[in-house]
Amino acid sequence: xxxxxxxxxxxxxxxxxxxxxxxxxxxxxxxxxxxxxxxxxxxxxxxxxxxxxxxxxxxxxxxxxxxxxxxxxxxxxxxxxxxxxxxxxxxxxxxxxxxxxxxxxxxxxxxxxxxxxxxxxxxxxxxxxxxxxxxxxxxxxxxxxxxxxxxxxxxxxxxxxxxxxxxxxxxxxxxxxxxxxxxxxxxxxxxxxxxxxxxxxxxxxxxxxxxxxxxxxxxxxxxxxxxxxxxxxxxxxxxxxxxxxxxxxxxxxxxxxxxxxxxxxxxxxxxxxxxxxxxxxxxxxxxxxxxxxxxxxxxxxxxxxxxxxxxxxxxxxxx
Length: 319
Fold this sequence. Notes:
This protein has two domains: 24-166, no CATH class; 185-318, Glucose Permease (Domain IIA) (Distorted Sandwich). It is 33% helix and 19% strand. It has helices spanning 2-12, 24-38, 45-61, 78-82, 94-99, 118-130, 136-147, 150-166, 309-318, and strands at 185-186, 193-194, 200-201, 205-208, 214-216, 221-229, 233-239, 244-254, 263-264, 269-273, 290-298, 303-306. Residues 201-299 form the M23ase beta-sheet core domain.
């Protein structure tokens, strides 16, 4: 009895072993392994990664979508997976899934098409993409057939373009839009009223600085819009890999080396502080020179503005 009690006491004192939560770096590495394994000449890894990142983005801002707990965020609808007429929507048999017109596939050769298995998920969407071909236009067609929303297709194409160019999915770095050696001032003005052009609210933060102070990109992204806007004057719109649209307005002029469609990274020179806007093309001087910086989030249905002030404060401390 003494021996038994001693043994029980000994094991009760051993430290409890629990599964540790993987770090973000470990998650990124795991995702890349899945992307590369499921890729092919017809379906490069960055096409798969872009769809997965888009799904991760909308899950973070949509309460009606369940958040994935695994390394891959892409979740394919049960009807798409098993087949609309399949009596068993939880079917994992590749043969019966195919018989009922489903798309679920076995990506890890275990004999099952599991809707929760990353290899099977990516293999299934890769099969869909491969039906259309390897070119960018083919990829757009495949995305349109699946999502049936132009804004979604454009967002995923942007992410894929960034991943292909930088050869990585680690594009989360940011920087302050005005280099540190220049003087500027700003405060939180998001939501305050604006009168020119009709009753509206201020959808951004104004950073006041002298004429000609450089303005740089805050993130990785693709220049989506560049030119004149009656409200924002000379302005640039950049879309990043997190479904965020960055809006830089009231510029005096653009940097000569950039154009629509260009890929930028944090610190890329975009243009210079001015006071353009509130009128037809060329209007300037109706307000003090400043950069209007706005951010907009796309959730797969709509796009809305949100306050950039907290992020600016954070990037300012980092610089």
